[in-house]
Structure formats: structure tokens, C-alpha cells
Amino acid sequence: MADDTFGRGKFPCLLILFQGLLLILFVVFVDYSKDVLPDAQNTLKINTDFPVFQDIHVLLLVGFGLLMTFLKKYGFSGLGYNFLICAVVMEWATLMQGFFEMENNKIQLDIDSMIKGDLAAVTILVSFGAVLGKTSSLQLLLMSFIEVIFYTINRTICTTYLQAVDPGGAVLVHAFGAYFGLTVARVLYNKNSVAHEKEASRYTSDLFATLGTIFLWVYWPSFNSILVQGVLRHRAVVNTYYAMAASCVTVFAFSSLVTKASKLSMVHIQNATLAGGVAVGTIASMIIHPWGAILLGMVGGIISTIGYKYIQPWLIRTLHIHDTCGVNSLHGMPGILAAIASIVSSGLAGFGQYKTSLYTVFPARSPVINSTQYLELVQFVPDARAGLGRTATEQAGYQCAALVMTLAVSSMGGLITGFIVKQSFFDPMTEDRMYDDLHYWEVCFYHFSIF
Amino acid sequence: MADDTFGRGKFPCLLILFQGLLLILFVVFVDYSKDVLPDAQNTLKINTDFPVFQDIHVLLLVGFGLLMTFLKKYGFSGLGYNFLICAVVMEWATLMQGFFEMENNKIQLDIDSMIKGDLAAVTILVSFGAVLGKTSSLQLLLMSFIEVIFYTINRTICTTYLQAVDPGGAVLVHAFGAYFGLTVARVLYNKNSVAHEKEASRYTSDLFATLGTIFLWVYWPSFNSILVQGVLRHRAVVNTYYAMAASCVTVFAFSSLVTKASKLSMVHIQNATLAGGVAVGTIASMIIHPWGAILLGMVGGIISTIGYKYIQPWLIRTLHIHDTCGVNSLHGMPGILAAIASIVSSGLAGFGQYKTSLYTVFPARSPVINSTQYLELVQFVPDARAGLGRTATEQAGYQCAALVMTLAVSSMGGLITGFIVKQSFFDPMTEDRMYDDLHYWEVCFYHFSIF
Amino acid sequence: MADDTFGRGKFPCLLILFQGLLLILFVVFVDYSKDVLPDAQNTLKINTDFPVFQDIHVLLLVGFGLLMTFLKKYGFSGLGYNFLICAVVMEWATLMQGFFEMENNKIQLDIDSMIKGDLAAVTILVSFGAVLGKTSSLQLLLMSFIEVIFYTINRTICTTYLQAVDPGGAVLVHAFGAYFGLTVARVLYNKNSVAHEKEASRYTSDLFATLGTIFLWVYWPSFNSILVQGVLRHRAVVNTYYAMAASCVTVFAFSSLVTKASKLSMVHIQNATLAGGVAVGTIASMIIHPWGAILLGMVGGIISTIGYKYIQPWLIRTLHIHDTCGVNSLHGMPGILAAIASIVSSGLAGFGQYKTSLYTVFPARSPVINSTQYLELVQFVPDARAGLGRTATEQAGYQCAALVMTLAVSSMGGLITGFIVKQSFFDPMTEDRMYDDLHYWEVCFYHFSIF
């Protein structure tokens, strides 16, 4: 018991050390970008992007936070750890991603850094879903720390080197987070954590979680369009809106089809309804026509519902992957679907349809040009940049490569992370403490004691 | 029992068939508008309208959704069916309204379609409130399907042919939804559904519902201003803000006045506080002066509180209209008040006060002009269009006509719909299943079963 | 009992009288500003400021509202009175502040009035937190009425006469509200209200309150940046984002450090995590570098956690100040910290770093100029105004003066208010009614009774 108290003192001490380290790193490496300083050139960005950013900020903290409260005795932890992970990752991912993009030896902060910080946080929250209720706060902290590193490396490879496109992060965020989390869950597998008596919801916790779902669903168009601008944002918003609608309708139907007595299952409604947003994420800004968005939303919803009903139990029985929130069904498989859709859609994308926006949607398809050609081109395409001159098929290949890379890096990263956090130093959880706030939170206390 | 299971299998089957039909209709009839395609002219719309759209999207899904959870055992259904209705209507109303506005044989999708889809969804949600807890999911689905058709027809008549103005949809959305729902409720009247033991709230369900109210209240300025731009939006926002404030204060006072022991009644706080937003809806963008907005907010709040206290029980006793959420008091009567206010306000509107904005606020009052006159006019009013040259009095008359039309179409539509959904094929509810999630949702389940 | 009923009838009667008075005052003194009328010059303001306004509107109504629901039996009152106070103050503060800024004998309404109304409401909500559960609705109403007057006077002195800057309102809103509320609480002190058996949370009420915290946390960047534009807004957003993150992480660590068995305390997570937003409020738009924001966030979080753990109980024991929500720890001390930071930061601010934005951030530092000089200057600084030609040190002094003034006015105002509301006419609460909805709300009622 004395040991236990000592052991648990590790969490606050390491956390405050980490925050201190972050402060030092910010002092040394970070400053404002020129858009946040006097004489900024781009003064409109804050007006056009901040409202959309705030939407995804709510999506993260409120949407994911509430979704994590579905367990009957684990609401404080679900909402609270979600909060902590967001805050930690917002700072840490700013640094990690900044290291790859320094100018004048400084990481340049502006609203783009905040957007990147939030997207990284989503990734870690997805992984958190896979291990919800089965890890100590120390394990979660360490997992967040390591995952951000892998996430940043993978994101940099896929976007900077492979030049794959993924505005809604279906692959780089959702699939990455899902398969990272699943591998961690595999390593931490404990058969007593499965069908645990506390791994259940109650009426009120299900209401809170469904409210979280609805916040996620409502703000998903902002999520899928935050990284693009103008017409591309408009298209991403429209595609996502209709994909979400189709996904929701389809999941209500399939949930009723596969559930006893044709009832609706709260698990499906809380989760699978969102799969359409993931499924359309990678191609949200492409010209897929509204029916393409609806079709993807439907397929995403079906896959996800089937995932919850049949594949999730199968993963436990067969592969010993116990995925508490079912992130494979909500983020993993729909993310792969999104990647496949992007391979098809990129392979079909031509100048006839996209006109000069082809080079905005797929920067790597911009022609390889010399400076004379550039001066000519820039007359027609103001933001033209010399590209790699890729063909549609090549771009499709790179989209495929990004998927493979993401699956490899996330599984490998999750495996390594799992083995590290499993060490007894990081307080792995015993079964009697799982899915229960009691051991980590002051529950039902008097507001304060004064004597 | 076998029959029952078969009967309930109808819901998912019809729902998936409907979603399949929607997909086919989208393939055949729907494409992007040119603002979502390369070479879009209007690239600013997404920046100015998307944040306001997201506000009303939250209002719909979160605000209405939570408001519907006030019943102690019907929270899953309230929140869940609200979600499903939104998604179904978003797709279906896009088609229905699009059919009236096709260009090049295609319905043109952009953010305006999303706004229209959401406004249609609000209408159906209002009607849903009148029958909450007393209809099967199949009946709800059918009601949504039919109501969208009537709503679209009425909207088209009132705005395109009558050229009545109603930026906040107090008549076309709220009053329409209310009287459609009330008529359906009348046809489905079952005396055992009244004062049913489960038609009650509990502490937590009332908290959820009040939270919904607050989301509705907060985002109402966006709702009343989404259809107008620039200065008109500014005015609509200011008017709505002060009307909402006055409505809230007035309802707290009147609730305490009419409630036993001067207590506050949660029903009033949850509902009547919003009446000011409806009451000011039709004239939100008119020059009614801030005190006009406050006066309307007060009158709306009083009418609505009295409605909940006295008229709602009277409707049940006398007309056998059992209106679960009291939509007559929240949406119906304040909507009629808004129409009356718009008749007065339109009748007083003159060029002296509105200057050239007269033709933006009331397009039908634009002069009938020939092309030479147009070229002159357009120098002063850049977006001038040839109008109908209506006088103030004529416009007032058409505002009145729109109210009458709306009341007629909604009651007629509700009557027809009521008789259709009452058929046994659509699984009318028996009393033992009313106001209870148990029969339609997996309640308090273990998260999943694996063996 | 008859007396009691009569006594309680005072609340609705006075409230409706007050709303009537507001209506008359609006008729006489209030009209639209020219930006809400035809021929408005500034048509962009609604597009750039309205989304940010809606964020703070949610922060007020939803964030504060839910935070006030943490008491197990006082959720209706927490959420409901928060709602009422907002609405009352929105109208009343519009008038009070308008009286100081009339043009052509009219108060000019536009979105700026709404922003000012909301900021005033936050101030009163902070004070409400100090007396939560211990005042009658009549006392609350009167407190709101009086506090708005003191708030407006203090704000006018500090910004117009002292020309101190405080974009996030850490001093003028948070510190003012806190010390006003604390003084009121001191005057109303009743030893039986302390450690009252109902002054406790329960599982669900803590979830609701934490959700409120998260809404506050998410929208705080909007709150700190609503009063500034362009680059200044961008900087305020970035600074606040990182300060909030650092604050959250630090509080999780310190909460675990100071709580028994290294558990996390819900009180700290619900409140102290927000202190970083207050601490950075006054200097949010200054060039403090990202590490400055993080440092302030950390210090704010530490001070606040220590405040909840040690200072709040000490205040009760020693000074008999019973502060229900701990507003001294969340708003008071972090507000003072913000003021100190602003003294330092203003004292260091120079033209080299701020360039011409120096005069936007600190208007009083603009040079004293004659009209010829003005014509020259305006070529480089389009919105140049003749200022007071203050030095950095002088500005620092005025920042200090604003803090002292705020502490003086708020304490004095609170003292006076406390003695007034303590009078028996305003229904002071007896212990048996404290922290309990039962006596003021219809609780767990049937939805309505018809016979």
C-alpha cells in the first residue's frame, strides 16, 4: 500500500517534469510566426480559419470527451483523461511537428500550429479509445508522448515525401490512431478485462455518450475541411454533410437489422453513424459528386455496424485484441475504405474535370517547370508551385503507399509502445481497478472540507 | 410475437430501401453547383455562411435533440430519433426542394442546399415534438417523408409565388411544423396516452432538456439570420439577441406568477423562453427598432407561458389534441404572432426608412422596370432585380396570405399524414409501449457480448 | 405560510416590473447604430465578429451554466439562474454602458453592444459563483442589478480615463466579479451554510459541471480575443490556446500532488484548469512569446489549485468568506496575476518590437499630435488617433492603477450590495432551503396536469 502510494506519486511528478520540459523547449525553440507579429501579411487567415478551428476544438474536447463517458463508472476518467491528453498533445505535437518545419531555427506559431496540435490530439484520442478503462494515467501519458512522435514521423513521410493527400485525416489520423491503439491493446491483453462486469453502460452514461456522438457528427464537416481553403473547403463541407447523413440513416437501418427483436443498439448509434465522416475524409475535397459522398457514407456505415456486431468480438476471441470503444470499426476500417476511395478517385482525376484546381488538390501533380515556365503559369494559377509532374496513376500509387506506410508505422509504433508501457514501472492496471473511477478520482465527495 | 418481430423488421427494411432510393435519385438528379467546382465565382460564401450554418446545425442536432430527452424513460428515443429525422430530412429535403430549382436538369448542391436541408429538418422536428413518445419509428419515418413534401410545396408557394418574406422561418418553419404536428397528434389521439405514468420527467432528464433549451437559445440569432446577408444579417442578429433576452426574463416572471407557491416550472423555462426567437423570426431583418424586438420577445414569452399553463390542457380536453412537447405554445402561437408582426411591419415599411435596402428586405417591392431603367437603377443598387412593384399594403397582404396558406397546407397535410400513419401497417403504438425506450432500444446492456 | 407565499410573489412582480422598465428605457434611449441601418459603412464586422461572439455566448450560457450544476440538488437553480442572470444583464448592461457612450441622445446598438452585454454578464456570473446556493432569486436579481452599475463605472474609469488595456477582461471582468462576489458572500456569511450536507456533488452533477468546464476551456480563446481585431486577435488566440493547455496539464499534476492517495480532485479539474485563461487575459494580445503564455498558464494553474486546496478553507475559517464555487481561486487570484503580468509586459513594450501596432495594443501610447502631424502619420498607420504620448513605464503605472481601482470598486460595491440584499425584504435564505432546488422549482413533476 505504501508502495502503491509511492507508485502513484510518479504520475504527478512525471507530469510536472514533462510540463517543465515543454516550457524550456518553448523558450528555446518556439516563437510567433510572422502572421502573428506586426506587419503580418496574411491578416485574413484568423477570420476564415478560426471559426472552423473552434468547431474542431469542440469536436475534440466535447465530442470525444463525452463519447468516452459511456461506461457506467468511468465517466470522470473518460472525460478527464480525454481533456488531459488533448492539453498534453497540443503542446507536445506543436514541438514535434515544428521540429520538421523550423524557419530561422525557430518553430513558428500561428493558428496553423493550433490546427496541427488538435489533429494530433485526435489521433491519440482514437488510440485512447482502444484501451479505455484498462490503463493507468501514467501509461496513458507515456502512450501519448510516444505516439505523437510516431504520428509526426508518419505524417511527415506521407505528406512531405510521398505527397499523398488526406485533408480529413482519414488515414493519417483515424487509421493511424486506430491501428496504433489496437496494437497497444493487443500487447496489454488481459482476458479478465473482457466482458468485465464494469465494462457496461447505464442509462445516463449512454445519454452523455450519444450527446458526444452528436457533437462529433455535427462538427465533422469542419474537421474534414480545416486543412483546405476556398472552393476546396466548400466542396469538403458539402461532401461531408451528405456522407454523414447517409451514414446515419444507413446505420439506423443496419443496427435494427442485426439487433435482437429489431431494436436499435446504442453502440451502433453512438459510433457507426460517424463512420461516413471518416470514409469520406481523404477525398473530401475531390470532385466525387454528391452521390459519391452518399455512397461512401452508406458503405462506411455498413462496414462499421458489421464491425461492431461481428468483427469486434471476433478480434477478441481470435487475435486477443480487446478494443474497448471499437476504434477498429469506427476509425480503422472506414479509414482504410477512405484510402481505397482515394486511390480510385486520384487515379481518375484529370485536368478536364479539375482544371487548374488539380494542382491545389494534388500539389504533386503540378508540372515540373523551370523559372520561365513558372512566370507564364503563375499568370493563370496565382498560387502555382513547381511540382513533381505526377500522372493520375502515379498519384493513386502514392495514395496506396501512404496507406501501407501508415499501417506499418502505426502497428510497429503501437507494438513498441505497448511493450514499454507494460513495464511495471508504469503501473499497469489490475482487474479490480479497471473501468472504475473510484481508484483514481475523488468520487461523490463533499465539495471541500475545511476543518 | 412472430408477427411483432416481422412487423418491426419493416422499419429497417423500409429505411434501407429509402436510403437506396435516395442514392439513385442523387445519381440521376444531383450535382455540385458551380460554386463548389473549379472556377467558382463566389468563393467568399463558404467563409461568411459556414460558421452560421454550423451554429444552426448544432441548434438542430444538439438543441432539439436534448430538448426531446425530458421524458424520464424516453431519452434514447428523443435524442436518437431526432438524430435520424435530421439525417433523413437533410437528404430528402435537398431533393424535394431541388426539384423546384433545377438548372440544366440537375439539382445544384452547395452550402445553400445544406442550409435548406437543415431548415426543413427543423420543421419536421417541431412536428415530432407534438407526437413525441406516441409513434413508432416507422410512423416517424413516414411522417418525415410526407411532411417534407408538404413543407416544400408550402415554402415554394409562399416565397416564390406569394413572395412573402420570413427569414427566421417563424411561419414557414415553426408555425408549419407546429400545426402539421398538432393535426397528426389529433388524428392519432388516444386518451390513454394522456397523463400516462411515463409521461413525466426526472431530475436528470430535465437537466438534459434544459441544456438543450440553452443551446437553442444561444444559437437562435444564427437561425434567424442565416438566410440574409450583410447589414440584414447584422440587424437580424441584434433583433433576435434582444428578443431572446426579453423573452427569457418575461417567462421567468410569468412562470413564477402562474405556478403554485410562486415556484418556477421547468416546462416553462425549457420551452417558453424560446418563444421570443420565434416571435421575432419573420421580421428579424426589418427595421423594428430594438424596443420592437424586446416587445415582441415579451409578448411571445407571455403567450407561450399562458399556452403551456392553460391552452395545452384545454386543447386536450376540448379538441383531443395531445401535444407532448407543447409545440403549439412554443412554435405555433408565437409563429402566428410573428406573422401578425410582419403584416404590421411590412405595411409600415417605406423607402424613407429602408432606402434601397427596401428591395433587399422585400424583393417584391422592387419596381417593375424595363432594361433601360434597369441599367440606371443598377448604378445605385448593385443587386437590383426587376420586381413586382408592390406597395407596402400589398406586401402586408401577401404576408397575411402566406400565414393563411401555411395554416391551411400544414393542417391539411397533417390530417392526411395522420390518417396514413394510423394504418396498422405502420405499427401504431400501444399504450404500454409509449414514452418508453425499452421496447425499441437495447437499454442498460453490457457493452458487447462475445461468446 | 401566507406571508411566505406573498413574499415569494415579490420575485415575479419585481421581475416583470423591471422588464417593463427596460422596455420603456429602450423605447426612449435606444436605437440601431448606423452599421445596422441601410448605408452602413462597416458591413464586414458581422462576418468577422459574429462567429467569435457566438463562441462567447455559448461560453456564458452553456459553460458557466453547466459549471454551476455541480451541487447534487441544485442543478435546476445553477443552470436556470445562470440563464436568467444572463438575460437580465444583457439588457440592463446594454443600457448602463450605453449611457456612457450615447450619440445623438441615443444608445447605438450593434454587435458591439451584444459583446459588451455578454462581458457584463460574465462578471455577474462570477459573483453568482461566490454565493451559489445561498441566496434567493430576489437577492440574485437585485445583486445583478446593482453590480452592473458598479461594473460599468469601473470599466469606464479603467478603460476611458485610465486607458488601461485588458482585452480578455482578466481584471475588469474576472477579478471584479470575484471580489464583488466575495464581499457579498462575506456580508451574507452564515456559519450553517458551510459544510452543509447538501453542499456536495454527486456523480452525474460532477459530469455535467465538468462538461461546463470543457466548454469554457474550449471557447476561452474566443473570449480573450473578442475585443481585438486582425493580428491582435490572432496573437490573443495563440497565446490563450497555449496558456490553457499548460494550465490544464499543470493542474492535473498539482491536483494529484495535493490530493489524498494521489487521486485527482474533480474540484480542481473543474475549475483550476481554466485559470490559465484568466492569467493570460490582460496580456493576451501583447507580444509575450509563446513561452510567456505557457509560463503564465502554469503559474495560474498552480496558484488556483493551491487556492482551492488551502486558501479557500482558510478564507472561511479566518475571514468568514464562504465562496461556494471558489471564485477567488479561479477568477480572483489569476486575475491579479494577469494584472501583474500586464504591468511587467506593458513596462517592457517598445516600438522596436511592436512597431506601429504599439498604438493599437496601447492606444494611450499614441503620440500627442497636431493636425499636420496627424495627416503625416495616417499615411503609415491608417487607424491612427491622437493619443496621450505615454511612455512604457507610465502605461505600466496605469495598468497598476486599474487593478487597484478594480479591487476598490468591486469590494466597496460588494459591501454595499451585501448589506442591501441582506434586508429581510429580499428574502434571505434560511439554512434548510440552501443548495436545494425543491423550494424554488417544480421538481420531478408530471409533465403537466390536465384535470
Quickly list its features.
NH4_transpt_AmtB-like_dom (chains A, B, C); two-stranded parallel ribbon; RhesusRHD (chains A, B, C); homotrimer; Ammonium/urea_transptr (chains A, B, C); transmembrane (chains A, B, C); 451 residues; 16 helices
How many individual domains of chain A? 1
Number of DSSP helices of chain A? 16
CATH topological fold name of chain A: Ammonium transporter fold
- Please give the share of residues in helix of chain A: 55-70%
What is the helix/strand order of chain A?
A: HEHHEHHHHHHHHHHHHH
- Provide the CATH top-level class of chain A: Mainly Alpha
Low-pLDDT sequence parts of chain A: none
**CATH hierarchy: architecture of chain A:** Orthogonal Bundle
Number of strands of chain A: 2
CATH superfamily of chain A: Ammonium transporter AmtB like domains
Biggest interface and residues each: A-B, 77 and 71 residues
Note the beta-strand portion of chain A.
under 5%
Mean pLDDT of chain A: 93
Quick one: biggest sheet of chain A?
2 strands, parallel
| Quaternary structure state of the chains depicted | homotrimer
What Rg of chain A is obtained from the alpha carbons, in whole angstroms? 22 Å
Task: Give the spatial strand order of the biggest sheet of chain A.
Answer: 1-2
What is the structure about, briefly put?
With 451 residues, chain A is an all-alpha fold.
Layout of secondary structure:
The structure is a homotrimer of 451-residue chains.
Chain A: H1 2-29, E1 30-32, H2 45-67, H3 75-99, E2 107-109, H4 111-131, H5 137-161, H6 170-187, H7 203-225, H8 230-258, H9 266-271, H10 275-279, H11 289-319, H12 327-348, H13 351-354, H14 358-361, H15 371-380, H16 392-421
Parallel strand pairs in A: 1-2
Helix pairs in contact in A: 1-3, 2-3, 2-4, 2-7, 3-4, 3-5, 4-5, 4-6, 5-6, 5-16, 6-12, 6-16, 7-8, 8-11, 11-12, 12-16
